[in-house]
Specification:
224 residues; 58% helix; mainly alpha; Endonuclease Iii, domain 2
């Protein structure tokens, strides 16, 4: 790869196939991933997941949608009551934005938009949340970039990474190559799960389907 902003067609096919195959055997079963969950509850989950682990979000999300199944039901809570509800997640701003999101959806007849521009107009919905919602829940192809994906692809291509890497052209270019036009939901679920559970800060390379061609792992072996 040597600094190029793309992978070869053969490498794209190999990486995509490996990730999809791994995902079929290891897909995480979070409750918001189930098909019968209303779209607004899926969007709520994606906003809650920003900078928060899914294991932390799951019990609170289950409680919220169980007690308040519609945006209108949730919007009638006072902000203080809602802050108490999501307090275990930390970050006080999160409660405010989630409450504002429910209120905004209640005002527009509880309809969740399915275009990126309209999604990012909603409180608390940034570029990542909108892309994740579209690809994972609205059957629209979108590239998903989170910190775990940045780490995985940086290691695979042998690049250093930091907080600004997610905005670099090479990363998006490679993800545009890898993300299929069909099966994008399965691919993105697999990519997110692989990056989160295997390519951790202390990676489990022995169980990574990409390890044979991972430049970061190759460099570790060369130094050993």
């Amino acid at each position: 790869m040597n600094g190029a902003d793309s992978l070869s067609p053969a490498n794209v096919a190999s990486v995509r196939k490996a990730i999809l195959r791994w995902g079929r055997a290891h897909r995480a079963d979070y409750p918001w991933r189930r098909e019968d969950v209303p779209l607004w509850q899926k969007l709520l989950a994606e906003v809650m997941l920003v900078r928060t682990k899914a294991e932390q979000v799951a019990p609170i999300w289950i409680e919220i949608v169980g007690r308040f199944p519609t945006p209108s039901a949730l919007a009638v809570l006072s902000l203080t009551e809602f802050q108490d509800l999501v307090a275990p997640l930390g970050l006080r701003w999160r409660a405010t934005r989630l409450h504002e999101l429910a209120t905004a959806l209640a005002r527009q007849d509880e309809l969740v938009p399915t275009t990126k521009g309209k999604l990012t107009d909603l409180p608390g919905v940034g570029d990542y949340c909108a892309s994740a919602f579209l690809s994972l829940h609205a059957n629209k192809r979108a590239v998903i970039i989170d910190s775990n994906v940045v780490r995985l692809l940086s290691r695979y291509t042998g690049r250093s990474h930091n907080g600004d890497t997610r905005r670099q052209r090479w990363l998006r270019a490679i993800l545009e190559q890898l993300t299929p036009a069909r099966n994008h939901q399965r691919f993105n679920y697999a990519l997110l799960d692989l990056a989160m559970s295997v390519c951790r800060p202390r990676p489990d390379c022995a169980h990574c389907p990409l390890s044979r061609r991972c430049r970061w792992r190759t460099s570790l072996r060369a130094r050993a």
